[in-house]
Automatic annotation (TrEMBL):
Keywords of the record: Aminotransferase, Pyridoxal phosphate, Transferase
Species classification: Eukaryota, Viridiplantae, Streptophyta, Embryophyta, Tracheophyta
Cofactor: pyridoxal 5'-phosphate
An example Gene Ontology biological process: L-tyrosine catabolic process
Cross-referenced InterPro entries: Aminotransferase_I/II_large, PyrdxlP-dep_Trfase, PyrdxlP-dep_Trfase_major, PyrdxlP-dep_Trfase_small, TyrNic_aminoTrfase
Name recorded for this polypeptide: Putative nicotianamine aminotransferase
Organism: Lupinus albus (White lupine)
Family: Belongs to the class-I pyridoxal-phosphate-dependent aminotransferase family.
């Protein structure tokens, strides 16, 4: 029996494309956790992922929890939802987003998703016709590249410029585009860089995209989490220049990443996405994918309408304080350079001067050895497209932030080259 099994030729094998698509923050986090020294009695400090629920200062507003409870207790939302979402939910999101725009969005412009990740997983396959390519920022969010690889959509990277506040390198953008470039992605406020793009720069990006014949995917999962000098400006403000598809989510502004609720919004007053068939393909894709839970859809109108401005303002103050602490303390670590003080989102990019360190070969090596020696987890920059950089979350509780920076400094001094 064994001999027969060994000689049998099977008709299946794994999809090798998934190996090239497996890079994720979660995957890197899990690998780094394996390197923590179990004999270290100090608590591990996770500054490599952005989960604001780990900070006790960030509390989901009671209105959100009450809205969920009311939806459950009503027994009216135990059914499958409509494919395009509960009408009250799509209308509430359209109204919420329109408050920042010079025009009114229709509920027909809004499509509900299981978080921002599913929004990416819907949009990119819709674009993946043979030969097409998409422009992604470097550094950026790895889910875009992973999903593009899965659906055989060619990826090209344009640069963000650290010495100019992580603005888009418009020359790099134009150099990478051709007649098969279908879209570009912009993340604002930026994960992983922590910058907030100005109104003037966003307009220049929109004009460049129009010139190149592509539309914009604006990842605004961190919308309104802007605590520096630049206010948040939605890319849809410029949708009369170029079609915009916006990705949004409850996760970060309301501190509920585990609720997995997001949306896709088509911002296109000139009707170009409809004319080119993109709108229809998004609707078709929704027919074959999973819907967000009906009870969360039912709760969304209350959450959006009744969350108080004081809640948002208090949390921006907490984030501003964390960003200030990080930026000031990072200056004390000789081998690290933070080129731009974070002014939005919940993470920041920091460059490592490898030449100043003994026995550290690159950013991955830095993070692995830091986990082993100090029980601090940082995300190596190569995971988001920049080698010998780090992505660091400053959204952790203040004591963990300060302790983590103290440990990183001790690690860096211990590995410093003797002059």
């Amino acid at each position: 029996m064994e001999t027969g099994s060994r000689s049998k030729k099977w008709n299946f094998e794994g999809n090798e494309w998934l190996n090239a698509s497996a890079v994720s923050v979660r995957g890197v986090f899990n690998k780094l956790k394996e390197n923590i020294n179990n004999e270290d009695k100090r608590p591990a400090i996770y500054m490599c992922r952005v989960d604001p629920t780990e900070n006790p200062l960030f509390q989901t507003p009671l209105i959100a929890s009450d809205a969920i409870a009311s939806a459950v207790q009503s027994y009216n939302f135990n059914s499958y939802p409509p494919t395009l979402g509960l009408p009250d939910a799509t209308r509430a999101i359209a109204d919420y987003l329109s408050s920042d725009l010079p025009y009114q969005l229709s509920p027909d412009n809004v499509f509900l998703t299981i978080g921002g990740t599913q929004a990416i997983d819907i949009i990119l396959p819709v674009l993946a016709r043979p030969g097409a390519n998409i422009l992604l920022p470097r550094p950026g969010y790895p889910q875009y590249e992973s999903r593009a690889n899965c659906c055989h959509l060619e990826v090209r990277h344009f640069d963000l410029l650290p010495d100019r506040g992580w603005e888009v390198d418009l020359d790099s953008l134009e150099a990478k585009a051709d007649e098969n470039t279908v879209a570009m992605v912009l993340i604002n406020p930026s994960n992983p860089c922590g910058n907030v793009f100005t109104h003037q720069h966003l307009k220049r990006v929109a004009e460049a995209a129009r010139k190149l014949g592509m539309f914009l995917i604006s990842d605004e999962v961190y919308a309104h989490i802007a605590f520096g000098s630049n206010p948040f400006v939605p890319m849809a403000v410029f949708s009369s220049i170029v079609p915009v598809i916006t990705i949004g989510s409850l996760s970060k502004r309301w501190f509920v990443p585990g609720w997995r609720f997001g949306w896709i919004t088509t911002c296109d007053p000139n009707g170009i996405l409809k004319q080119t068939g993109i709108l229809k393909l998004i609707k078709n894709y929704l027919e074959i994918t999973t819907d967000p839970p009906t009870i969360i859809q039912a709760a969304v109108p209350e959450i959006l309408k009744r969350t108080k401005e004081e809640f948002y303002a208090e949390n921006l103050n907490i984030m501003r304080e964390g960003a200030n602490i990080f930026y000031d303390r990072c200056k004390e670590i000789p081998c690290l350079k933070c080129p731009h003080k974070p002014e939005g989102a919940m993470s920041v990019m920091v460059q490592i001067n490898i030449s100043q360190l003994e026995g550290i070969i690159d950013d991955v090596d830095f993070c692995v050895k830091l986990a082993k020696e100090e029980s601090v987890l940082l995300l190596p920059g190569v995971s988001v497209g920049l080698q010998n950089w780090l992505r660091i979350s400053f959204a952790v509780k203040r004591s963990a932030l300060e302790d983590g920076l103290t440990r990183i400094k001790a690690f860096s001094l211990r590995h410093a080259k003797m002059s």
